[in-house]
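Okay, any thoughts on this one?
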Amino acid sequence: MAAAKDPMKTVETMTADAQKTLTANIEKASKSFEDVAAFGQETVDAMIKAQNLTAKAVEEINAEVIAFSKKTLEETVAHAKDLASAQTVTDFIEKQAGFAKTALDSMVKQSTKMNEMMMAAAKDAMAPVTARMNAAADMMKSHTA
């Protein structure tokens, strides 16, 4: 009878070990699914943040364009009035040359400012996306290790 108990005990031990292994694997798979779901949600959150940052930057850039356009229009109207007051052709040419130089300088400064605003906007908007890409790379490394 002792011999009959040993095979039964072996089967019980094997069954218990198999159940432990299966439970551990199910828990591991469940944890992996939870990690993937959390990662997906964090990625969606990062995309929303990037979109919000982009929308804010577009508003700021639009406000800058409107302000510059208004300023340019006001300066052009003032210049036209100034040109109308010219008494001689030489005076007219000097006023026009001065305005042209001022307008060109203003456009160069504004172009530089707009470029800086756009570069900053792109950098800010890409930061959350870049962070998620780095997190994805880290996750891949940790799962392959």
Notes: The chain is about 95% helix and 0% strand. The mean pLDDT is 91. The first helix runs from residue 2 to 84. Residues 47-145 form one domain.
